[in-house]
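Supplementary Text 2. Reproducibility record for the structural model of the 436-residue chain.

All settings were left at their defaults, and a single model was retained for analysis rather than an ensemble. We include the record here because the model underlies the residue-level annotations in Supplementary Table 4.
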Amino acid sequence: MTDNKPPTAEAISNGEIHAAPTTIAQKYDLLPKLIPNLDRHLTFPLLENLSGVEGDESSEVLKAKYELLKQTNMTDYVASLWQEINDSDDVPDEFVRKRDDVLQRLSLFTEETKQIDELLNDESVVSNLRSDKVANLKFLEQQHGVTAQMVDMLYDYGRFQYNCGSYANAAHLLDQFRILSTDNDKASSASWGKLAADILTTNWEVVMEEINKVKESIDTKLFNNPLAQLDHRTWLIHWTLFPFFNYEPARDTITEMLFSPSFINSIQTNCPWILRYLAAAVITNRSRTRNTGAYQKQLKDLVRVVRQEGYEYNDPVTEFIKALYVDFDFEEAQKKLSEAEEVLRGDFFLAASADAFVDAARHLISESYCKIHQRIDIKDLSARLGLNLDEGEKWIVNLIRDTRMDGKLDYKEGTVLMNHPANSVYQQVRIYKIPD
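Retained model, structure tokens:
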């Protein structure tokens, strides 16, 4: 399925779906960078979201959808896009002919795969299958007349259904093909196709299983081809964005995977813009895991990578990290947080996480500010957080309570006095033993 990339339509690949950027969100739109790493069907939801963000659907978005899907078997929908673009009630003959051809091929595929499909849905047959694919094919051939060509037909039919937009059927057929096929290249392609189909049916639990299978395949079957590994990991990184921010149980698993040496190296080498999503995940995980060693290590690694890749990629999200943890510039951090909020709200994957990100980021600003100041002016800190005085007081009280900081609020003076215990000499100085 990896050959099913979207076409290089000029409006898409050159980022010309928008006019000249007029907002922060448009200026930092990642669509042109994401699309080359997604299947055409996975790209479509991003274009649909763009329609919703921009209100009335622009002609550029309509044309981009048409260019994206005209090579598929979704003939009725493509014809409707053509009518809308050309403001016509008529449907060209080419669409009618293609629709008839699709229906005819669909009927033929159904007939030719009927026997093997029934066998693989028969519990008495499936119970006799083993992990040895060669033995399974021999058993099915001897007992039920199944041939290698019949198995390959499952693959072709699965691809056909996928191109028709019948994703659940495609996932089922491609999974059946993988059970029997001894063709490693086709089996790998089927795994990518099934992963895409499961993403598009939002079957997130199964998606996570498929991600693990694809990851294992990349690690084991491509170990002697580093360039292919890099390309496949880059694709997988982009495809994981769908469950990353749509399926809560996936958050920790994918974050851990992206921070693993092979994947973080792939991000730095091939797609540093993914740091936006990694930063958003780490920041929004704060309330759930901020006191764990794993979270602190992830935050430390994030700061390191953002600092290293600043010359290669930056946006308000990564610049917020830099301002807060590299430059310790609280005014700049607040400025970048405001910009980051707008960027997140315009991002297909992060829009639903914008509020959680802003809330967690404010906590991180407050915590950092309180750790390096002994006397804190409530009015000043409230301004840094974009809050009025009353909201700021409540915020600081909750912060001290939630983080168990040792602070005393002086309402009369409008200040908070932080009690920072002095470090012992052993905490201030690291003593190394001189080797003999």
